[in-house]
Design brief:
2 strands; two-stranded antiparallel ribbon; mainly alpha; 13 helices; 2 domains; DUF3435; disordered C terminus
């Protein structure tokens, strides 16, 4: 702490907390001193996972859903629920009247219907998990085989239509930070390295103070553009034209 206080030239060591920017999530003191931040390294290591992949499916596959439904035995429960529903309607006229009367047959029907609903939720969870697991089990083999065959289109290019819009940052500070962090400073002298660190810290602070710009609006249709460009009747002023005559 004494070394940090001497380098940063601060009276109170507690002021270093101000350099931990909550929005940037980066230790700017560590960036200034040219050493990795322990907090940042731990945070990055604990958030690493092979299951974090933007290409992974987020919806349940129909094949996995059908397989999960077939393995769960829910079809028999659905048949039992439908049969009890018919019996309830024959006894009381409709399900609402049977619920109002509180018949024993309606109680059996309600229990089976609740089991079908809960099992449907469980089946969808299992099917979604199986869909993602299948993706992560096959993605490496698919990419390796495509590299071996030297295909012109890579796997990412083939999935461009299904990936949808990927998030993009429009802040100039983010671009500058990426360039500063990736810059090679091994061959530079100490003065240039110090300036590089100062510039990195200043850029990080500026990024922390900058708000994300609003998302771009959807493009206007051709009819809206033509409507804006077409002059309305009476918008042309003739005062200036006749004043020169």
């Amino acid at each position: 702490m004494g070394q940090l206080q001497h380098v940063m030239n601060h009276k109170d060591a507690g002021i270093y907390q101000a350099y931990i920017n909550q929005r940037v999530q980066c230790d700017t003191v560590a960036a200034f001193l040219g050493r990795p931040s322990k907090k940042a390294l731990i945070s990055a290591a604990t958030h690493m996972s092979r299951y974090v992949d933007p290409r992974a499916p987020t919806e349940t596959g129909q094949q996995e859903l059908a397989q999960a439904r077939a393995d769960s035995g829910i079809l028999q429960l659905i048949e039992l629920r439908d049969m009890l529903c018919r019996e309830v309607c024959l006894e009381s006229g409709n399900v609402r009247q049977a619920k109002k009367d509180g018949t024993e047959l309606y109680g059996m029907y309600a229990n089976v219907a609740a089991k079908v609903t809960s099992m449907n939720v469980l089946i969808r969870k299992v099917a979604k998990k199986n869909t993602r697991q299948k993706f992560f089990e096959e993605i490496n083999t698919i990419e390796i085989n495509q590299q071996i065959r030297n295909e012109r289109s890579a796997y990412l290019d083939a999935l461009n239509d299904t990936l949808g819009h990927q998030p993009s940052h429009r802040l100039e500070e983010r671009k500058m930070i990426a360039e500063l962090i990736c810059a090679d400073t091994e061959s530079l002298d100490e003065e240039i390295k110090l300036q590089h660190r100062l510039c990195t810290v200043n850029t990080l602070v500026c990024l922390g103070r900058t708000r994300e710009p609003p998302r771009p609006r959807l493009p206007r249709t051709a009819s809206q553009v033509l409507e804006k460009r077409t002059p309305t009747p009476g918008s042309f002023s003739t005062h200036r034209h006749f004043s020169t005559l």
